[in-house]
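Entry 14. Ran structure prediction on the chain below.
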Amino acid sequence: MVKKKDKKDIEEQVEEKEPVTAEETENTADAKEENAEESKEEKAEPEVVEVNVDFKDRYIRLSADFDNYRKRTLKEKMDLMNTAGESIMKEILPVFDDFERAMNAMKFDESNPDSKANKEGIDIIYNKFKDFLKAKGVSQIDVKNKEFDTDIHEAITKIPAPTPELKGKIVDVIENGYELNGKVIRYAKVVIGE
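Output, structure tokens:
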């Protein structure tokens, strides 16, 4: 509530003031608009900073997501290329096994020069075949006298171990196992000593 005395003081101050011209009124209105715009800008400035931080954060996250996607697809492509020939190599392995069996079954007469030349020719072909498989990333799994491992071996049967050291170990190999660039493409079929 305004006191009477205060009311009189206000009225006197209003009367003492000189009359305001139209030009002064425009200037006052412009000044008020400028002040209003400045206050809006001041209020808007923290919002702009918050929005910029939000966009920057979203940009960084999006960039990281894209980088992860790029790396993942590149890794998938490399894995696909490394194992692309897996089915072909699986089909070639039985031929390679037959080749080894044939070499072991052949009897060469050392006294006959033709027999010696045949053996050398077959050895050259066998080594080329072996080198071809190695160049394509196929390697034989070493299993003889090793501990049985279900990740790379397939047990066909168990026999009594010839020595106590071979108990639980691989005694004989029925069919060699192979890996293609570290991935098992055929498990070694083995006999385990018990």
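The chain has a mean pLDDT of 80. Will compare against last week's run tomorrow.
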